[in-house]
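Researcher: Let's continue the batch. This sequence belongs to Electron transfer flavoprotein subunit alpha/FixB family protein, and it's 315 residues. Same format as the previous ones, please.
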Amino acid sequence: MMSVLVAAEHRRGALRDVSYEAITAGRELADARGVDLHVAVIGGDVDGFAEDLNRDGVDAIHTVADGEEFDHNAYQAALSQLTDRIEAGAVVLPNSVNGLDYAPALAEALGVPIVTDAVGMAYDDGLTVTREMYGSKVETTVDVAGDRFVLTVRGGEWPPAEGVGDAAIEAAEVDIPESGARVTGFEEVGGGDVDIADADVLVSVGRGIEEEENIELIEDLAEALGATLSASRPIVDNGWLPKNRQVGQSGKVVTPDVYIAVGISGAVQHVAGMKGSDTIVAINTDPNAPIFDIADYGIVGDLFDVVPELIDEFA
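Model: Same format as before. Here are the structure tokens for Electron transfer flavoprotein subunit alpha/FixB family protein:
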């Protein structure tokens, strides 16, 4: 029987959350097929990464010590060889900038179909992948022909793998061709010293705030809650907050423990970036605002009345 292989992703010395989410997706697929789940980690501190990736449900971890950061050629070559070696039928990758860099080339090298940006899947006689298109306005399903394929999974759609596993960890001997690409440095796009994707609690402000000077009120709420301030696209487009604070399809995908949407209507582009939050609280004057369709708790009211009361309660 063919196994399932998941490729982990790291950046600047740290594993990315989508690595653990991809393990969950891979385990789901492995369970449906009744096969083992293998994880590959390439480059960087592979031994340390392997310990962190040894979660419940992982049967084997393969380390490839080649360079410190992402290299397209190394990932394609290593995963192609590992796929053949362990007879992997499915290769699961993050639907990230790095993942999409080498996923098509890997599928071409293996001679298998590829489906990108999966948000869900079902497995009966074959794999059916759920995808969202046009800013999550359209949901589609793709039936994958055959038993072998490459699949990329969207971040925030599967819970991260947890627990401590007992996987076998082994250094994989693979032939990595010499590459003309190399990492010379990193530059943060949008600047800023906050990564909203790492926040446990987010207070997000939308166009309901009306004027730039009113954002101070939401900053006070975030401070009272020990939260991080984020925003919907109109706030960033107006220049009231920097790009690194934007949540949504054209911003960042976030999965905090608590997401508080203040004056945000809930356009599909914004919802696509925060719907994976554990608990969603919405404050809006419009009882029919789409944000209430996904909110766990909703307050129908004027934010200029509601927010000061919340500040008084939590300060």
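Researcher: Any comment?
Model: The radius of gyration is 21 Å.
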